[in-house]
Design a protein that fits this description.
Blueprint (H helix, E strand, L loop, with lengths): L10 H16 L1 H7 L13 H20 L5 H22 L13 H7 L9 H11 L2 H17 L6 H14 L5 H8 L9 H29 L10 H12 L5 H26 L5 H10 L4 E3 L1 H18 L13 E5 L7 E4 L9 E5 L7 E3 H11 L4 H10 L6 H6 L3 H17 L6 H26 L14 H10 L5 H13 L5 H21 L5 H10 L5 H9 L1
Parallel strand pairs: 2-4
Antiparallel strand pairs: 1-5, 3-4
Length: 558
């Protein structure tokens, strides 16, 4: 069935959509991220009862699916994908791992604040909704502390390092020049101040939220005393986390060895490109030369945003004829993020595309100069043919997929694996031949391969590579290994290492996901022989949506 054929709704579709409706009612934060209206003034119930409500919903949906009869291949994929995603979430819940989750990037500490970045603020009504949700931050954070405490009483406490970094994040957010101060300074409509009553409500809400984050730092301190010093989660939990992020089961020993081999291959290619940048140069010397080359320099965040937007728009034009890009997906918006963490990320379009897909750059405080040689590959990763095409195309396929498949079946290995594959695709199509841009591509790939090794090795207790002395992994060995294979700002790399240590299984999902995407393409090409069409393969695979990679493979290969 093609995406242009209007497919009648089935019982399986109705179960999936009823699940999504109930899920976003329980998680207003998810509703906002998905662009589903009606929940923007609220926040999630982060108490143990809130987590239990999600579990009841998953079990009810799985029971309903067991009684449903799929009528076609679309239904069969939906059933398999929902069983995989919801069933795995239940395994994680039964292990108590969701209740005690705290890390530097993807726990409720960040999620409660991050949702405000994508809320509209163009009108006074928008700001009123913003203020209403902000007023609920203290309650949400209080509920989360309850959950962390219950988890701790059951023996589930995140590592000490994560507690220390999260307490620091609370201080950064509430500093005089932090996020909350910035909200009040920037609150306006068309450049005019907000009406007095609304401005007062917003100020009270923001001050209460800032106070809640200051209190959170204090409330985390007793839990910190119960936190283990060891960063590793252990092999049993790691296998669960890995399945969660990939939607696939992998051989951890084989993947650990492959990661080291892939890293060696990339390192050798970087040395060859360094020679192209400057004859006789080592990789660090080539990096220094590229950083100093005015052809790759940008000054100021305005110039950075304009460059991002220009390259993102250019990529869409370059790929006409190579990829199917639906009309609504031809619009992407590039923005400087209101935070200062140093990350670059993508947020998808709303269901009706009234909010476009957006690429965000969170510029660290004090950074005003940027090197484009590092970042062109990132534009392709976050934009087209990366996340923006992948997510936007899926959201667009209303004729083919139910809303759960279009909006809520995201799996990291599928999404991040595709985005890394997209970077190589641009190189394959001849758009990364410039030695500087090629070095940027390889430097990013080196980081992704290094963290396969580091993440699996640390958390599963495998022997460290000989280059860092072998034996057991330590924080210092992990830092030396990461620093040796990523020519990036040391502050950024410190955050990256903390992220890997606190979010097991997620960082490797990029490179492992890319590997599984490439394997799927190769196997499809072998099967189809002379009939293989790369554009058709991309369209068919992306039309399936962001399901787990085992489900994707089965759906593509049949």
């Amino acid at each position: 069935m093609t995406a242009e054929t209007h497919r009648p709704q089935t019982d399986v579709d109705r179960i999936a959509e009823a699940h999504l409706d109930a899920e976003v009612a329980l998680s207003p934060i998810s509703a906002t991220h998905l662009g589903l209206p009606g929940h923007d003034a609220d926040l999630d119930d982060l108490s143990p009862d809130g987590y239990a409500a999600h579990s009841r919903l998953r079990r009810q949906t799985l029971a309903a699916l067991a009684d449903a009869t799929p009528v076609d291949d679309v239904d069969r994929v939906t059933v398999e994908a929902m069983h995989e995603r919801l069933g795995l979430a239940e395994e994680i819940h039964d292990a108590g791992l969701d209740l005690g989750e705290l890390n530097v990037i993807a726990s409720p500490l960040q999620g409660v604040r991050d949702v405000f970045d994508i809320m509209p603020t163009a009108t006074t009504d928008d700001w009123a909704t913003f203020a209403s949700r902000m007023a609920k931050v203290p309650a949400a954070l209080g509920q989360w502390v309850q959950s962390l405490t219950v988890a701790a009483d059951r023996g589930q406490v995140s590592p000490l390092r994560q507690y220390d970094r999260c307490i620091e994040q609370c201080a950064d957010l509430t500093a005089p020049d932090g996020y909350f101060a910035g909200v009040l300074a920037g609150a306006s409509v068309d450049g005019a101040p907000l009406p007095e009553t609304l401005a007062t409500d917003l100020r009270r809400s923001v001050e209460a939220a800032a106070g809640a984050y200051r209190d959170l730092a204090t409330q985390l301190a007793p839990l910190r005393e119960r936190a283990p010093e060891a960063d590793a989660c252990g092999r049993e939990h790691y296998q669960l986390y890995s399945r969660s992020f990939l939607g696939a089961t992998i051989d951890l020993e084989e993947t650990y060895a492959w990661g080291q081999e892939e890293l060696a291959r990339i390192t050798a290619e970087m040395a060859a490109v360094a020679e192209q940048v400057r004859p006789g140069a080592t990789v660090p010397e080539a990096v220094e030369a590229l950083d100093a080359d005015p052809r790759y320099q940008l000054h100021g965040t305005d110039a950075l945003r304009e460059w991002m937007q220009g390259k993102a728009d250019e990529a869409i034009e370059l790929l006409d004829g190579h990829l199917d890009i639906p009309d609504p997906v031809r619009t992407i918006e590039c923005r400087i993020a209101p935070t200062e963490t140093g990350g670059i990320y993508y947020t998808g379009p709303s269901d009706d595309f009234s909010r476009p897909g957006r690429m965000w750059w969170s510029v660290p405080r004090g950074v005003t100069d940027f090197g484009t040689w590092r970042e062109l590959t990132t534009v392709y990763h976050e934009g087209v043919p990366g996340h923006h095409l992948q997510i936007g195309q899926t959201v667009h396929r209303k004729e083919l997929l139910n809303r759960w498949r279009r909006l809520a079946s995201w799996t990291s290995g599928h999404g991040e694996g595709w985005a890394l594959y997209a970077e190589w695709l641009m190189a394959e199509l001849g758009h990364m031949d410039d030695p500087g841009n090629r070095m940027g591509l390889l430097d990013g790939q080196s980081l992704r391969a290094a963290r396969v090794v580091l993440d699996i090795g640390v958390h599963c207790g495998f022997e460290a590579p000989a280059e860092v002395g072998g034996g057991a992994w330590t924080y210092d060995k992990a830092w030396d290994f990461l620093s040796a294979h990523a020519n990036m700002d040391k502050g950024f790399l410190r955050f990256e290492l903390d992220r890997y240590l606190g979010w097991p299984g997620q960082a490797p999902s990029y490179k492992i996901g890319e590997r599984l995407w490439l394997q799927l393409r190769e196997e499809t090409a072998r099967r189809e022989g002379a009939d293989f069409d790369l554009r058709a393969f991309h369209r068919r695979a992306l039309d399936i949506g962001g399901v787990g990679l085992d489900t994707l493979r089965g759906a593509v290969l049949g």
